[in-house]
Design brief:
Layout: E1 11-17, H1 21-35, E2 42-49, H2 55-63, E3 69-74, H3 80-93, E4 98-101, H4 113-121, E5 126-130, E6 137-139, H5 143-160, E7 172-175, H6 176-179, H7 191-202, E8 206-210, E9 212-214, H8 229-243
Parallel strand pairs: 1-2, 1-4, 2-3, 5-8, 6-9
Antiparallel strand pairs: 4-7, 5-7
Helix pairs in contact: 1-2, 5-8, 7-8
């Protein structure tokens, strides 16, 4: 594994957005404020994934006043996974040591970013946020969603067996040199588990940080995550492959 050249690793935060005009400014400003207090070189990469509600205009105005912000635009909506890959490409070009993935709705607090950074300094390869370990919690989330999430996390934890209690959490950080080797194919939310499956074979040190997940603000659009059996299977199959230690053929660069 490559290591950063000093005690202060550099980090890019990648945030996908789709029709998030109402919350874009709050997201960017709160993340940039958190980054100002970190010692290493930092960057915020927002990927506008084909928004049609004026999100791009808001981001353009924000980029004029926030030097840490870089915006990437997809002409059409290509999906969560494609947005993350575009953000990772920018992070690689900028030579960042780590990429931290966040959602734009602030259901995970930017105040938790320093917790990730401390694990980066300690040399972790993959850092997952956890809602289900000491210090983590879920607040204000509908009961059905919480039950689905808890059951999924319980199953994934026992299949992955890497000491991570919240394998399905999308609030996570990965070394950029590892991400550069991954050939991820998922275009939607299952990329989170596909990525972790590949990291089982590409990473050595896993860590987790406790976070409190909250519900989306009522003024934002509804979540686009679909609670359907076909979606659950797309998550579960990667956990099964990891459990059986089936190498990710074609998903890792040689």
């Amino acid at each position: 594994m490559s290591t950063h050249s000093s005690g202060n690793p550099s980090m890019a935060i990648v945030v996908p957005m789709f029709n998030e005009r109402a919350g874009a400014a709050a997201c960017v400003e709160s993340i940039c404020e958190a980054l100002r207090h970190l010692p290493g070189r930092t960057k915020l990469i927002v990927v506008d994934d084909g928004s049609v509600d004026g999100t791009a205009d808001v981001l353009a105005r924000l980029a004029a006043t926030h030097s840490a912000l870089e915006c990437v635009t997809h002409v059409r909506n290509r999906g969560y996974g494609a947005a993350l890959r575009s953000g990772v490409d920018v992070a690689i070009r900028n030579g960042c040591d780590y990429v931290l993935f966040m959602d734009s709705d602030l259901t995970n607090s930017p105040a938790d970013i320093p917790r990730f950074y401390r694990e980066m300094v300690r040399g972790a390869d993959v850092i997952k946020a956890t809602r289900y370990h000491r210090g983590g919690a879920i607040q204000g989330v509908p009961l059905r969603r919480e039950i689905v999430s808890r059951v999924g996390a319980w199953i994934a934890r026992r299949l992955f067996r890497i000491g991570v209690s919240d394998c399905t959490n999308g609030f996570r950080a990965v070394r950029t040199d590892i991400l550069s080797r991954l050939r991820l194919r998922e275009t939607k939310f299952p990329i989170i588990v596909e990525e972790l499956y590949c990291c089982v074979f590409a990473a050595e040190r896993f860590a987790e940080v406790p976070v409190v997940l909250t519900n989306r603000n009522a003024g934002l659009r509804s979540t686009s995550f679909a609670y359907r059996p076909s979606v659950y299977w797309r998550y579960l199959r990667y956990a099964l492959l990891a459990c059986l230690r089936v190498p990710p053929k074609g998903r890792l660069a040689s």
